[in-house]
Amino acid sequence: MSAGFPDFRLGTVLATSFTGTLSERHGNAVERIPVPHRLVDWLTVNGLAVDSCTTAQLDLARELRESIHAAATAAANQDALPASAVEVINECSVQGRAAAVLTPEGTRRWRLGSGSCVEDALGVIAADAIDVISGERDGKLALCASPTCQAAFFDTSQSRTRRWCDMNTCGNRQKKARFTANQRKKPSSA
Ligand SMILES: [Zn+2]
After folding, report:
1. How many angstroms separate the alpha carbon of residue 101 from the centre of ligand 1?
2. In CATH terms, is domain 14-138 a member of 2.40.170.20?
């Protein structure tokens, strides 16, 4: 099903996992939801399964994604939030008709409206973004230290000193780059 498409980066925060479906925004950008059915796959993995997705709905999803990215970046930099991004996030949040339901096991599940409910799923993501950007949730918005990434991520570590959006990709790459640079320096400094 996912053959030929870039893998998803899975995080624990819905809103920033969603913005992570476009990575390396300042380098060679990787679009991880290039076609509607990949958005369906992503939503399924994140507990927001929908029946189907149209090209127009994918466009709307990407508009929301970039709006969350813009607003989260501004918030991380303590800049004023871009008005157009706030508008898109709010519009998606208001449009969604998803309901939180409690399972017998005591966990939360999202029940989306009937039919193809990409808009309902986007409503859940928009609400999650509002939680994170408004400071309602415990954690701190920060920007990835990788120059080609600079993704906004939500730092929930105790010390609030996380530097990378993802340790397995950006963090490792940075470490390798530093290691290589150190190896190169050695002969001349010896
Ligand atoms: Zn990163």
Report:
1. 33
2. no
